[in-house]
Amino acid sequence: MTLECQGPVLMEGPVEIVLDDGTVARSDRFMVAVCTCRRSRTYPWCDTSHRRRERAASPTENRNPE
């Protein structure tokens, strides 16, 4: 298993994931990207939706210079 900073969890396949509702999602791929941001349209599999997420501005970036 490999953790990507602000990205998916990469796992060697095949993979079975039990979802919150008890259903099982299966993938027979040799490498599987599991979504951690929950924005994927193909959840639990990553569709790179995390790349479109904008970073929230920090409080110091929100200040207007006077």
Automatic annotation (TrEMBL):
Family matches, as InterPro entries: FeS-contain_CDGSH-typ (IPR018967), MitoNEET_CISD (IPR042216)
UniProt domain Iron-binding zinc finger CDGSH type: residue ranges: 12-56
UniProt keyword annotation of Metal-binding present: yes
GO molecular function: 2 iron, 2 sulfur cluster binding; metal ion binding
Gene3D superfamilies in UniProt: CDGSH iron-sulfur domain, mitoNEET-type (3.40.5.90)
Pfam families, A to Z: zf-CDGSH
Record's keyword annotation contains Iron: yes
Keyword terms of this UniProt record: 2Fe-2S, Iron, Iron-sulfur, Metal-binding
GO cellular component labels: cytoplasm
Protein name from the UniProt record: Iron-binding zinc finger CDGSH type domain-containing protein
Organism field: Streptomyces virginiae
